[in-house]
Amino acid sequence: MHISRLSLTDYRNYAHAELELGPGATVFAGRNGHGKTNLVEAVGYLSTLGSHRVSSEHALIRAGADAAIIRALLAHAGREILVEVQLNRGAANRAQVNRNGVRTRELPRYTHSVLFAPEDLAIVRGDPGVRRRFLDDLLVQRMPRMAGVLADYDRVLRQRNSLLKSARASGLRNAQLPTLEIWDERLVELGTEVVDRRLDLVADLGEPLREAYRGIVDDDHGPRLDPRLSIDGAGEDEDPQPDRAAPDATLDSAASDTAARFRAALAALRSKELERGVTLAGPHRDDVLLELNGLPAKGYASHGESWSFALALKLASASLLRTDSTTGDPVLILDDVFAELDRGRRDRLAASISDFEQVLVTAAVIEDVPEVLAGRIVRIERGAVVGGAGEDGRTGDEREEVADA
Fold first, then answer.
1. Which residues have CB under 8 Å from 151's CB, separation 6+?
2. Residues 53-79: what's their mean pLDDT?
3. What is the value of pTM for the model shown?
4. Among 78, 110, 389, 396, which residue has the fewest nearby CB atoms (within 10 Å)?
């Protein structure tokens, strides 16, 4: 799959933008702060229903506007699909596929992309929530119906937390809260599916991760993903130690009933939950430990190793989506990535992605981009597309200057 046309209206710093794209690599070039990343962020939103930079969708709507529109024409195997989402300040978002209204959460069924940006270093070095978000974004693309499961889980979690806070404020005991058992069952039902699907995903990422990491650093540092589940006693706030045995969170869900473990955890934590007014076990408190050379990457890996690990995770994600999808390769997006890599890693990364159907790259310095990816250049200036490019990488004006010379 590739995007043949991208249109933005009142999105970020773009009043309007229209780009004709195609297969192969395209570089969005321009100075920092002029809108390069905004273009690829819009593509990523269609796949994940979120931004890799901000949590609030209001930040995506241009100042002074009531709504922003992202529209993309997708092409695959001679067929075209028009997908569109309208982000509204004061109302629910709206989505269309081929001009027919659909639920917004259905958009990931049609648009697949993998975006890597400097912010993704937080997958390795940041809080557990960043790693949960990474897994869930990939889950939704592999299994679009999981968008509904995750949304329903969040809704039930909010309701249950509200009940726990009310109980704490009024001094009610567990025996006086029969309603809590109803929310427990719904939480377990939805949470069990989230936990099991995440465990499946982590297992599937293992080999592609190792291959991608070797391809980037030309060495084998043993990258590994180790799930840590709160229903098995793993605490969200604990710092993993290299010599400590992993908790039972690594148990295969097929060998131990996740739902039963979830119920047992809620029962054991009930008094603490009533004291604190918050749900203490479930996928919203899980983590995954990232290891290199048998040590936690967070706290032990160098900056270069952490960067390579995060990039390898994204390349492994692209590999999984390529294998799973019936619509071809995902769109691979590299946002200001090459400036952070040395020459050798730049070249190895470029070689490993050159066979993807469509690669979108942003760069402030075009010389940072390996030549194999710099054939088509689109120049961005102050929220406007000021120059498209042909296969030789020069804009129309630049080609005219050459001809006049």
1. 105
2. 93
3. 0.84
4. 78
| pLDDT value for 244 | 38
- What percentage of residues in the chain have a pLDDT greater than 70? 88
Confidence band of 339 (pLDDT split at 50, 70, 90): confident
pLDDT for 265 beyond 70: yes
Q: Which residues are annotated as a binding site?
A: 30-37
CATH number of 118-324: 1.20.1050.90
pLDDT given at position 237: 53
The two three-digit tokens of residue 8, written as one number:
């933005």
- CATH of 1-112+326-405 among 3.40.50.20, 3.20.20.70, 3.40.640.10, 3.40.50.300: 3.40.50.300
162, pLDDT greater than 80? yes
**d(C-alpha 264, C-alpha 12), whole Å:** 47
Domain extents in the chain: 1-112+326-405, 118-324
The answer to whether the beta carbons of residues 344 and 219 sit under 8 Å apart is: no
Which residue numbers belong to the known binding site for ATP? 30-37
